Amino acid sequence: MPSVNLSNIVFTKAKFRYSISEIVDDFLKKKLDKEVREYAKNELGIDYVYKSYDFSKIDFDKGDFVEPDVSLNDMYYKTAKKSLRGVNPKKIGLFITINDNQQYLDPSPTVELIPKLSFRKDIRAQNFQGLACSSFSESLLNSAGYFLMNGKEDAFVLIGTHYTPWFLDRIKQIKHISKKDKTNFYNLIYFLIFSDAVASTILSQTKTKNTQIQIDLKSILTLKDTKNTEKNATIKMSPDKKHRIIFDMKLQPKKLREEVADLSAQNLKLLRKKMPSEFKRIKIWGLHTAGGRFVDYVAGKCQIDKTKIGLSYELMKKTGNTGAVSSLQFINECINKKALSKNNLGCFIDYGWEGVNIFIFRKLN
Known about the structure:
With 365 residues, this protein is α+β, with helices and mostly antiparallel strands. 36% of the residues lie in helices and 26% in strands. The chain is built from twelve helices and 14 strands. It has helices at residues 20-27, 34-43, 72-83, 110-116, 136-149, 164-173, 182-193, 253-274, 276-280, 292-302, 310-319, 326-336; strands at 3-13, 16-19, 48-51, 92-100, 124-129, 154-161, 197-204, 211-216, 221-223, 233-239, 245-251, 282-287, 345-351, 356-363. Helix 6 (164-173) packs across helix 7 and helix 8 (253-274) packs parallel to helix 10 (292-302).
């Protein structure tokens, strides 16, 4: 089976939209140095983000935990229902969820969603947790393996990025943030850059009338850093004096940025060698929208013409970092904006704490 076929792609943003300026100059002004506020407004490459919280109801000076106004499972359900509209759910044989959220100790969201979506009793379920922003390629490869064993059944992939509860809770407990305090500063940056978002798609091993995108399995390349034994980024759960769980993040952004850029350049070189004809025909490039400095650095290291990644910069400005959702968001935007004509090729470079991925996709409908 040489390819995976994508149909019924849906991308959903959380309900509440905020500008970076609004967050730092209004909601968080008392907590932030002027230097921090100016950095956030001018250096992130992001104008707007979407959150699952109504910030107007939150007292940012109080340390109480606040539940989101929109739950990830509700976003999952509504997005999945749109993807499955007009589709017989009994024809789905594999259900994959990719989760970037703080509820990884809970039962998988598939427990609730399988009966709500009327999937069959013997459906296989896989729950990817902790692969961070570079997870979509793993779901493609797992689905391809499933197809080899299970005839004509389809797979359904549901991706959710829901980082705000992690970082909002941390920000509420911090009294003051300056650039000198790197830990609190990076907690703020991650709170600012991420949007809460969900995306879904149906994967098939054969092309149908509804197929929108085709991904050649030969083009899916994955690399991980096998030399660095230290983590460039960690989120640790630890109790405070009141035995409340605190998410404590430690980050080495420069080291992480250099690592993913080097690995992405290696992947690009491998892809060019493996599929030279297809590589020359790539019309548009997508990069994971991790923030301006990351995108600039990875693009430079990979020697990609910035005129060919304009759509990634545009999405980053409008919706921030959408985590593991970003690859499907980019593909969906290529379709909606008609950035590719029929049979044109695009390429997406994915990267995150887990490693880097790359794949070529062809627009069909």
